[in-house]
Amino acid sequence: MKNNFLGILLLFSSSAFAQNEVHDQFAKITTVQQAQQWADANPKLKPAILNLNSLKDSSLIDKRLLRQNQGDVFSVGYVTYKVLESTEKVQYRASYIFLDGGSLSQTQIDSLKKIIVSKASKGADWNQLSDEYTMDGNTTHGDTGWFFGEEQMPKEFQDAVKAHQKGEIFFVDVSERNWHYIVKKTYDDDDKKVAIVLRANGR
């Protein structure tokens, strides 16, 4: 415990610090709290803690930082970066028509699939088709809203939406529950990555 305490003191002591040791010092920092303590102890190196978001930060260096993994330390010119935290979140959105295999025969399901896709391909309004044919009583015209995870939609449904492009119509069958979906992907995937990065002059 005593050795650990001394190590922390040494890590944040500017008197024991030289600019060419930034990379080694950054490698020892693992939390945002430690990064802030280090920044407070070394103001001459112009440290900063960056909160980056892939939806709004688009400079070349921001994009490079967002591609890095948590824990990465690297230098660009005479500036060194440490990725303290890095998380990625993907959400999907589609609209569906649900057919209940507990109430319909397979022949009826196959027939309805053909009828609905034919109408959609001829320009029929998808919201109206959903209201007319869906069997789950939803009041959103089949709009899933943004979703991710099995607690919101079946895994088979999410995997299929992920594998298709915006505007495509396809079928999803959840065999073990006898659920059948005609799905239209209505939005591109919302893929957002966020990162917290420590930056300072030196290498």
Helicity level: 25-40%
Strand segment count:
7
Low-confidence stretches: 1-6, 13-19
Cross-sheet strand order for the largest sheet:
1-7-3-2
Average pLDDT metric: 89
Distance between the termini: 30 Å
Structural class by secondary-structure content: alpha+beta
Output the helix-strand order: HHHEHEEEHHHEEE
Largest sheet, in brief, is:
4 strands, antiparallel
Shape: elongated
Q: Number of helix segments?
A: 7
Radius of gyration: 26 Å
Give the percentage of residues in beta strands.
25-35%
Outline the structure in words.
The chain is an alpha+beta fold. The protein has 7 helices and 7 strands. It has helices spanning 2-11, 22-28, 32-41, 60-67, 106-121, 126-133, 155-163; strands at residues 48-53, 73-76, 79-91, 94-100, 169-174, 179-185, 190-201. The strands form 2 sheets. A 4-stranded antiparallel β-sheet has the order 1-7-3-2. Strands 4-6-5 form a 3-stranded antiparallel β-sheet, sandwiched between helices. The radius of gyration is 26 Å and the shape is elongated.
